[in-house]
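Please predict the structure of the following assembly.
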Amino acid sequence: MSEVTNGISRRSVLKGAAIGGLGLAAGGSLLAGCGSDSTGALAFGARTVDAGPTAQLKALTAAYTAKTKNEVTYNATESNAFQNNLSQYLQGTPDDAFQWMAGYRMQFFAEQGLLADLTGVWDTIGDQYADSYKTAATGLDGKQYFVPQSWYPWGLHFRKSMFADLGLSADTVTNWDEYLKMLDGMKKKGLVGFAAGDKGGWEAMGTFDILNARINGYQFHVDLLAGREKWTDAKVLDVFKHWEMLIPYMNPNVLDLEWDGAMQLLLQKKAGSMLMGSWFGGNFKEQSDADYADLSIIPFPEINPMYGRDTVDAPIDGFCVAANGTNNAGGVDFLKFAGDMEGVQAMLDAKDADGKSIPMTSANKGQDTSTYDAFQKEQLAVMDEAKYITQFLDRDTRPDFAGPVVGPAIQSWFKNPKDVNKIVDSLQAQWDALPPLA
Amino acid sequence: MSIDVELQTAATKYRNKQKIKDRFISLFIGIFAIVWIFPIIWTVWSSLRPYKEVRANGLFSLPKVLNLSNYADAISRMDLPLYFWNTFIITVPAVFLTLFFGSLIAFVVSRYSFRWNVSLLLLFTAGNLLPAQLVFIPVFKMYITLGKAVGMPRLLYDSPWGVVLIHVAFQMGFATFVLSSYMKTVPKEISESAMVDGATVFTHYTKVMLPLLRPALASLGVLMTTWIYNDFFWALVLMSTDSKRPITSALGRLQGEFVTDYNLLAAGAVIAALPTLIVFFVLRKQFVSGLTLGSTKG
Amino acid sequence: MNSTAMDKVKPHRRRAFSRADRTTLTAFVGVPLFFHLLLVWVPAFLTIVLSFTYWSGISISRIKFAGLANYKNIFFDTPAFWEAIQNNIIWLAWFAGIATPIGILLAYQIDRQIRGHKFYETAYYLPVVLSLAVTGIIWNFLLRPDGFVNGLFGRDIDNAISFFGNYDINIYVILTIASWRHIGYIMLLYLAGLKSVDMALREAASLDGATEWQTFKKVIFPAMKPVNVIVIVITIIESLRAFDIVYIIYGSSAGFPILGTLVFQNIAGEGASMKGAAYAVILFVLSIGPIIAYLRTTFRSDVQ
């Protein structure tokens, strides 16, 4: 069983983010010099069909074409379909560059020889990123295979107005007991305290991640996902015990809603809080600016004072080049642009259908964090506070374990929380029975 | 004589009782039928109402506006003409080739007695019943390897031809079976006189059998078109570019993209279903006779 | 054996084929056979072989022999497999006990030409003509947390009846949707078969004073034996192969495990392994019985 690397020291990330504005001019001029050899037209595969991110990516490809005169064919696929098809896609007829995620998910395909080496790109633009991003982009063989685009933290989202109604604020929900008190208050008002949806099988992994990290610490979490700790350990049972305490405050139809269903509960003011990644800010903004301004995020409350709020799931999304693409050189050249501040700026400048700007938290040091709106600043604050960063369960462990095994296991736990012992026994048995990676 | 009259009155009484029973049955089935098509009616109804209005006034509100704006929107935003074109270039060759190959085998098997005739029929029919997932990975690998070998990676993978071929390979069995059943009903004299006249096998097929097969080919064609049009599994797994997929596979993506505006999605679904619905209503006789040929042996 | 039969029945057929004829015949049979073998039987065989290996589906050079490891894993270490089998069995029971009989009865009544039978025939068959993708969308509408049915009960998104997420009822919801299609299909198959039943038989039965139900049970049903077998076989095969509807509603998540989705989950996507091939083989083995029954019934007269 191979090691799964994960975890980035948060300190480096913060250092990078705090130095705003660096590299903008320098990075720009560096690239302006090259680009004399045309690498030709290429194809780009986007992993989203949502309006906001599509506008950003199209702005990126347009800027690239404007600069290098290389045509970019834009191919979009819905996220789930793209993920399901990735193995076939990469073996068959992939686009030259495509959107993907960091973590073991990327390292696995690099190891199979399906991703192109991007070390050269990092030599050029590496100084625009904190070291931790480079670590996240590195494959199992020490070379880089990934260029980061954006990140988002998983945290507790809520509406400031609803908290105010209860006489609460972000500062008053910092630990578990206070959180339960808040949930109680919501329930008395007839609201759902903790909106949750797990129809897709992956959403609840975020809750598991954060509870495990809060109760048992970052190292245990990492070790558990790598198989060095057992699922049958009392520590894991403790996680489920705490999780069970949240069930009375959840909506009854957890397994019938996907993440956007849970988001709707928050959007329609039917739920008090939701643990989710912050990518959906754009959906709130589409509804109205007032709703977006009302949205807030804090780190998930502390449970074990030994660990505080030191860990956060912060998946990094970005780009890769497919080894089987027809124009590797073109793909690499495009990623050089996309990773450079020039490309990032094109994405940041993109506007949605109503002419409003689309929020994006770039991994690039060059993004001026002082231009962050309030919600983005709060996301940054969540990241700031954390000492350790993980990528999310289904990116941090073996893919044939995360999706097919852990996902259904959590779903069956929702069906019957009392079965927890049977479930963890089964999880451990299935981990032990995993075939060697071929 | 009186016995006859008694029998007659008894028979009439029985028939009247049955008529009343029949009225109830008809009523019951009728109500059931309306419930049956209600989901379709609801979808069409939803497609005629703008999403904003439903959101504001509720699902059961009386409509202030009832128009085809969702349809216009769907056509422009969902890229429907492109997907329909993709469907067309997959369905038409697939149906044609399936009917063609099926007729070839059916012809040989029913007009010429060879030892392996029955085995051949068994092979093809069994092949039709195999689960698609059983063959997917090797077929995928074959397509890619062949494509790479001839320097055209998109020869079969991510290409309509790859999807056409797999449809043909699978549906050939059913076509063969149906056409051979049909051919058994065609009198042998016609073939025998052709052979006595010294016709080659080729002429026998083209000039004698094919014209006779026309009604069966029509019915089978209608059935095949519907099945192949409605498939979404093969295009989903053997194509990676969404813009090349037929409309049914693309619906999955559209469902993700327009998940909140379901009135728009309803319009898209109705449009996607329209071709098969039209074929069904217009060519219903062929449809039913196609199934007849397939379900019972002549 | 066949040549003797040929001798007896068609003596004038025994003449040599010309060269051209032989080429034509070879091509006529060879080309279709080639495609069929290459894209159906060869891959089926390969998948069976692959089920005994460890492989992520990517580099052929990395295939490792695994013996029965995948099967052992499935049978002993994968609770989802047993849930799936259970669901498939319930599916089969529902189809065999409820959906198919309803289809048969509908066919019978419609064949009797009760009032409105033309409309009914169309109405009940309509769902069969729709693509399963469209069917999924239609039913998603109705059963969404903010859809029609929940609206009827006056429930909103936060306390909606969880049709797909509530594991006590979701199987019946899925089966209802599947039946919506299956019943129409069986109905039409049976209708087609009924047309071939001698009218005289029916009239004789009714003259003898038999009720409709007795006519059906004692006269019509037995006369439809070949169609009955086909209907049974299709019922079994459809229950085992079920995949499309569940995929449309649950995507590739494991919300509702059945054999078909287990195959897909383990073969497509990043977590691919040859466990998927093993699942496919299990699915195939379970289908062999019905397939053979189908072949025997349909080709009975030929094989004799």
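Confidence is low (pLDDT under 50) at residues 1-36 of chain A. Residues 205-226 of chain A form the longest helix (22 residues).
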